[in-house]
Design goal:
With 288 residues, this protein is α/β, with parallel strands linked by helices. It has one domain: Alpha-Beta Barrel (TIM Barrel). Helices cover 46% and strands 15% of the residues. It contains eleven helices and eight strands. Strands 1-2-3-4-5-6-7-8 form an eight-stranded parallel β-barrel, surrounded by four helices. Helix 1 links the parallel strand 1 and strand 2. Helix 8 runs parallel beside helix 9. The longest helix is centred in the middle third of the chain and has 21 residues. The chain is globular, with a radius of gyration of 18 Å.
Length: 288
């Protein structure tokens, strides 16, 4: 297994200087930095090349994550919106190729967060989502980027809330470049037992997000880390394990993730670095 973290642990906006965070996570002992994939689309080739070379020099692998906005909903009944979403994902994948990122995960099968003031058409959304994923699966594979479908809790979307639902969706897409992404924050809400959910994913598991049940760094709460570690070993998982903690209020990140109180203990960046380095050591011991 390789261990990483999402850049937004330190940030309040979804755009950032990724070269700075490549150096930071390398210094802290990580193997992977996860980027906000949408931000890459607005970068020119020189900026993307600089990120690629920085990651090469630092020995850091890159992955990308996004929750598609509603205007790029690839499951939309509006064909213009759906088509626009497919083309937007292709732009993201082209940018990920240029920085040599290997994974695109998140809510890439619909839009996020779900607007529950509108009627829920789960069957229709599912069918259109499968069609869109089939359109981009070869495009992603040709660029060396694995697509992973993230399970999220019922309050953020309705399409796939459990490992079983995610596996079934990936199975129905039926493309070798489409797998499942589990996130223990969401699993803690939706699954009976987290270890069983990991075993359900089995060979379909392509990416794993981790954090405490309140989104603090691992080791600061009551998540069943031993149970998850055993299940990962049981299925022979050797992919990426990426922390996704959110502990600071403010900005678009704080608003989107619903961080309404300081979870950091009023930490400055130095203390945030110390906390996540300690969490990395904790998780390596539990999972490796």
């Amino acid at each position: 297994m390789k261990f990483g973290t999402y850049f937004a642990y330190w940030e309040q906006e979804w755009n950032a200087d990724y070269k700075f965070y490549i150096d930071k996570v390398a210094r802290l002992g990580f193997d992977i930095l996860e980027l906000g994939a949408g931000a890459l689309v607005g970068m020119d080739d020189a900026e993307l090349s600089a990120i690629k070379h920085k990651s090469r020099d630092a020995g850091i692998s890159l992955t990308g994550c996004i929750g598609l906005p509603a205007n790029y909903d690839v499951s939309s009944a509006d064909e213009g919106v759906r088509r626009g979403g497919v083309e937007y994902l292709k732009k993201i994948l082209a940018a990920l190729e240029k920085v040599e990122a290997s994974v695109l995960g998140g809510i890439i099968y619909a839009y996020w967060p779900c607007d529950y003031s509108k009627p829920v058409d789960k069957a229709g959304v599912r069918a259109r989502s499968i069609g869109s994923l089939l359109e981009i699966a070869d495009f992603a594979a040709d660029r060396g980027v694995l697509l992973v479908l993230e399970t999220v809790n019922r309050f953020e979307h309705f399409l796939i809330n459990t490992s079983e639902e995610a596996v079934q969706l990936a199975h129905d897409v039926g493309h070798p470049n489409v797998k499942v992404m589990l996130d223990c924050f969401h699993m803690n809400i939706e699954e009976d037992f987290l270890g069983d959910a990991i075993r359900t994913a089995g060979k379909w598991l392509g990416h794993f997000h981790i954090g405490e049940c309140n989104r603090k760094v691992p080791g600061r709460g009551h998540m069943p880390w031993d149970e998850m570690g055993k299940a990962l070993r049981d299925i022979g998982y050797d992919g990426a394990v990426v922390m996704e903690p959110f502990v600071r209020m403010g900005g678009t990140v704080g608003s989107d993730i619903k961080v309404w109180r300081d979870l950091s203990g009023n930490a400055d960046d130095k203390k945030l670095d110390e906390d996540i380095a300690e969490a990395l050591k904790f998780v390596r011991e539990k999972f490796a």
